[in-house]
Write a structure and sequence with these properties.
heterodimer; A: alpha+beta; Sufe protein. Chain: A; 3-stranded antiparallel beta sheet; 6 helices; 3 strands; 48% helix; B: mainly alpha; Helix Hairpins; Monooxygenase; globular
Chain lengths: 147, 177
């Protein structure tokens, strides 16, 4: 199976490979897997006081398409608000990377990773609030006020 | 795949299939279907022998790998293998697989052949144990789709292990070079 140029490019020069401190309250970690192929993907975001993603890192053990999908996702996440990040769809990743039908699940995995990183960040914020600490970000405050 | 690999090789469908017997069967059939034996035969017959030889090879490949072996049993029982519908792995398993992959990357980076072998042995033991649990479970399911479906998480775990072994083989090759 031939990979598209963009997939190869991300595979050979993956952006934002690495780790953020998962214990940092400003960091959200998403860990997802594809049982059909055994790929595992970790995607982390760092969120500032204004609810903007200032940094994103990933580590993926899987095929070229899974690596490219998560690499692209981290690129897209930086500078976005959590609300904007939530709107990223796997179909956008498919389109950008020209993924063939058999590799669509890689983009689904990346979308899941984004959502699960955001959910992790939010639940950490909620836990801090429950313990009486001030919410770290405006997004968390807004989410809190909205409840 | 038109036929399940057990049928193609004429073996009883079971997860703990006798691989030595399967290999013998594969060799016998491959010899019988060899193109040399079909020289001078009608084109249609030659083509059929070739197709059957390809099928026999694919069947042997499928049976050797515990993942594809399990998938063949699931498919024969009518369990649809839809990647989107498969149960998600537990967070604990994902965390563990991520850590194992990172550990592998670390010993690879340090060119630590002893650490690499130890990691490989640990994971191979684990795969063996998982297979040892799956064999009676497959037998007890007796081809019932609902009972087979309950085995999907364990089959998923086998796939995560297989991904690990792929990376392991690459690391082994690199360190040997």
């Amino acid at each position: 199976m031939a990979y598209s140029d963009k997939v190869v490019e991300h595979y050979e020069n993956p952006r934002n490979v690495g780790t953020l401190d998962k214990n940092d309250p400003a960091v959200g970690t998403g860990l997802v897997g594809a049982p059909a192929c055994g790929d595992v993907m970790r995607l982390q975001i760092k969120v500032d006081d204004g609810g903007v993603i200032t940094d994103a890192k990933f580590k993926t053990f899987g095929c070229g398409s899974a690596i490219a999908s998560s690499s692209l996702a981290t690129e897209w996440l930086k500078g976005k608000t959590l609300g904007e990040a939530e709107t990223i769809k796997n179909t956008q990743i498919v389109e950008e990377l020209n993924l063939p039908p058999v590799k669509i699940h890689c983009s689904v995995l990346a979308e899941d990773a984004i959502k699960s990183a955001i959910a992790d960040f939010r639940s950490k914020q909620a836990a801090r609030r429950a313990l009486g600490a001030e919410p770290v970000t405006a997004d968390a405050a807004a989410a809190h006020a909205g409840k | 795949m038109t036929h399940d690999p057990f049928t193609v090789l004429g073996l009883e469908p079971r997860f703990d299939v006798d691989l030595a017997a399967a290999e013998v069967r594969h060799r016998e059939l491959s010899r019988a279907l060899h193109p040399d034996r079909y020289q001078g035969k009608p084109a249609a017959e030659r083509r059929m022998a070739l197709e059957r030889a390809i099928e026999v090879n694919a069947a042997w490949r499928a049976l050797r790998d515990p993942v594809t072996r399990a998938e063949a049993l699931l498919a024969a029982g009518g369990v649809e293998l839809d990647e989107r519908a498969e149960p998600k792995a537990s967070p604990a398993l994902l965390m563990e697989m991520m850590e194992l992959q990172e550990e592998l990357a670390e010993v690879r980076g340090k060119r630590d052949a002893v650490g690499l072998r130890r990691l490989g042995d640990t994971l191979r033991t684990r795969e063996r144990e998982l297979c040892a649990r799956l064999a009676p479970a497959f037998a007890a399911a007796r081809g019932d789709a609902a009972r087979l479906r309950a085995l999907l998480p364990a089959v998923g775990e086998l796939r995560y292990l297989r991904r690990f072994f792929e990376a392991y083989a690459a690391a082994e090759e690199e360190l040997a070079a």
